[in-house]
Amino acid sequence: MKQNNITEDQLKNQFAKKYLAYALSTITQRALPDVRDGLKPVHRRLIYAMYLLDLSPKSTFKKSARVVGDVIGKFHPHGDQSVYDALVRLAQDFATKYPLINGQGNFGNIDGDNAAAMRYTETKLTEVSEFLLKDIDSDTVDFRKTYDGELSEPTVLPSAFPNLLANGSSGIAVGMATNIPPHNLEEICLGLKYLNNHKDCSIKDLLKIIKGPDFPTGGILNYDKNEIFKAYSTGRGFFELRAKYKIEDLGKGQYQISITQIPFQVNKSKLIEKIADLIINKTNKLIDNVIDESDENIRVVIRPKNRNVDPIILMNSLYQQTELQVKFFLNMNVLNHRLEPKVMSLKEVLSNFLKHRYVILDRKSRYALNKINLRLEILKGFLIVFKHLNNIIKIIRNSNNPKSELMKKYRFSENQVNAILDMKLRSLRKIEQKEIEDENNKLASNKKFLTKLLASKALQKKEIDREIDEVIFAFGEKSSYGPRKTLIEKFNQIDPDELIEELKSNDPISVIISNNGFLKARIGHSQYKSSQDFAEHEQIIANGKKSDKFIFLSSFGKSYTINGDSFVFGSSKGRPFSSYFTLTDNEQIIDVFLLEENKKILLCSLSGFGFFINSNNLISNKKSGKKVFKLKKNDFLHSATKFEDLYDHLFLLINNKEDTKGMILDIKEIPEQEKGSGITLFKSKGYSLLASSPINKKMEVFDNYSNKIMSKLDFNKYILPRAKAGKALKLDPNFNSLYRGFDNNYKLLI
Known about the structure:
The protein is of the alpha+beta class. The chain has 19 helices and 38 strands.
């Protein structure tokens, strides 16, 4: 229903239409490149605007701001920074395999530094761009009106080479994306030439010529035949890329590794920071130092821990831990000649480009033929003039309307008579007549060739091959661009498990915490059997390996995690807790134990609250720790007790100033939580927890400190429901220092 120029419709329908229009606009006008010239609209407009500004390779540079101004003012109504960013990328030799723009000034670097402002930099086109623009004035491509209707712009560039594959492309549209790596231009052209002469060739045939991507930063590409074939035949897949390095002999068995090429799109500065972090955090035990000695060429020096470190294993460790090895994911999603998005195979991309070149050849030839016909027509008129020179001069002198009289008497066309009347007198020399005759003969020969060319597929194929050869000559292996930069070889892969073992140190260590706030780590295991073995300040010991994780628990109900290889060894006094984690005021470390995955741990507070927690939930990646026990006011975390499957009950020892009590709980009464405040284990009025231990009915109470059996328990006597006060327990007079760490000093043994 339509009333007063208002059309009624459901809001969801309008949203759908508008979103579809937006999506299509993003796909065709912003994110995806055209298969024919490999460019997105912004790049095409940049190159064409610079062409109109006469910024050829032989011209002088002009300010980038001038170029950007022309682009956004005439062709591309977007923000100037986005256009400048696009310009910069086309000028960066580490981002673009065959730069389309020649930049003068600071255009950024591989360390991630940004280019200088557009008012400081200058640009002009490269020879590569000239090949993209070649024959653009010969009616080879269609033009359309610009956004304001004042000017015209090309819908596509003639593109004498497959720029899509040569320089690659990346972009994210609505619901789709593209990611195409750069390739070696000579290989592409040879593959294109082969396809031109073997229409029915397979992907495997083409891959004999086109080996794989060729990145501007070099590196080494893994020759995985199956993966490469899958990627190029489907248009989707991935390539593995590694840094290139060499081993430098320093004499006396010493060596260092020099990285000379890094993978494409990897930030060198961040890469070095990552390697440095591995050294600082002792995540990689094989490296001693990393030094950036790069100038215009990349040179990152890595020094091993010692001469015995295998350089192959060292580099493989870095491949796994850093971006010295990356995966480049291929998504050959492009626009065809109808501006329809499609994921194409390698053969489809080359075939579509070939069709484009045949169209260009046809249009260029017809344009040239029309120009030749027009010129031949004029030259024919000039030759008639030389035969009847005196009569024609007489007509021009005496006639009131020489144009019509000449057309009538000599049957000149309008083009001919206009050219005759515009002819200068000096052109009437005899020598000029000879030049006209020669030009006429030459043009007649060209006309004959073009006529045959337009009528013969074989000649067209030959001409396409000739044009491809021109590109190879200009940008091939023998040109200034040189041979392929990315080597292709089968990676020497080391078993990941083997590598992990190489990276880890399995030296036995002991972790000791003191009652004066210090933490000491020793190489080797400490086992104390009597009080004489302890220094006065040593209270809690945990044994493990450097490859293990250790869990620390604080009185405030927080857990902290430290890797075994992160401890500082050798100090007799140890280091304060603040060296490893951040404690709040009055917070104390009350326990440390070796992390065993998926173990059942009982957490108990001093006033009698507790719950089971999975050991994995105690892991913290923060220096500030992880809050796991929500404590009530004036309560503190007391202990952590590990439960194995053989234990079915919990023995609690509680006391006040006057007496000591014991009670046994069925562990089924105690819940398991990820965190929380737990449940009441015993009645806490005046009593606090002294010790806790897992038990079963076959156990006796044992004082590990005095190495004596306290007494045999009447097991059933002490079994009570939770939240009770317990029953009096007579202790051996020598029984003291009941609690010391995760392996409770107070123990019940079989």
